[in-house]
């Protein structure tokens, strides 16, 4: 099996995922998964597509990620891994990943701050007198 790549995005985070047959090693920016994401919940988010398709330990995954915070990065990686698995075998994995919602790009972004206001929606306190 040759190397397959996919792109995952969430908020300001962009993840480039490269997947190849292997022993299940996940490397993010030249660091192991356990070293990059200290929280167990973020490691769980990254492994969700692999657990759903029962492909843990079958692929070596190399990821380069930049931008955003750690939560956005983890969700961008999840989308990238799900897309890469679809490239590997569309018939076997796509329906399960689609039903779980892992192939949908979460389009929610931070709304910009407006001029003359303290925030995006917040207004300064109104004073009648």
Pick out its properties.
Ribosomal Protein S5, domain 2; single chain; elongated; 129 residues; 37% helix; alpha+beta
What would your notes on this structure say?
- By secondary structure, this protein is α+β, with helices and mostly antiparallel strands.
- It has a single domain, classed as Ribosomal Protein S5, domain 2, CATH 3.30.230.
- It is built from four helices and five strands; from the N terminus they run E-E-E-E-H-H-E-H-H.
- Strands 1-2-5-3-4 form a five-stranded mixed β-sheet.
- A hairpin with a 2-residue loop joins strand 3 and strand 4 (31-32).
- It is elongated, with a radius of gyration of 18 Å.
- The protein starts with a strand and ends in a 29-residue tail after the last helix.
- 27% of the residues are buried.
- The mean pLDDT is 94.
Give a quick summary of the entry.
The chain is of the alpha+beta class and 129 residues long.
Helix-strand string = EEEEHHEHH
Number of strands: 5
Query: Would you identify the regions where 5 or more consecutive residues have pLDDT less than 50?
Result: none
* Helical residues, percent: 25-40%
* CATH class (first level) name: Alpha Beta
Number of spatially distinct domains: 1
Mean pLDDT equals 94
Write down the overall geometry.
elongated
What is Rg? 18 Å
Instruction: Please report the number of helical segments.
Output: 4
Largest sheet: 5 strands, mixed
- Tell me the distance between the termini: 74 Å
Q: What fraction of the residues are assigned to beta strands by DSSP?
A: 15-25%
């Amino acid at each position: 099996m040759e190397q397959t790549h996919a792109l995952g995005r969430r908020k300001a985070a962009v993840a480039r995922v490269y997947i190849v047959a292997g022993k299940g090693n996940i490397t993010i920016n030249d660091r192991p998964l356990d070293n990059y994401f200290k929280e167990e919940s973020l490691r769980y988010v990254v492994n969700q597509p692999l657990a759903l398709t029962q492909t843990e330990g079958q692929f070596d995954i190399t990821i380069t990620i930049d931008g955003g915070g750690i939560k956005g990065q983890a969700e961008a990686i999840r989308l990238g891994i799900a897309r890469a698995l679809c490239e590997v075998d569309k018939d076997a994995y796509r329906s399960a990943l689609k039903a779980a919602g892992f192939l949908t790009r979460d389009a929610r972004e931070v709304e910009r701050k407006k001029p003359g206001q303290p925030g995006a929606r917040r207004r300064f306190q109104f004073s009648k007198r």
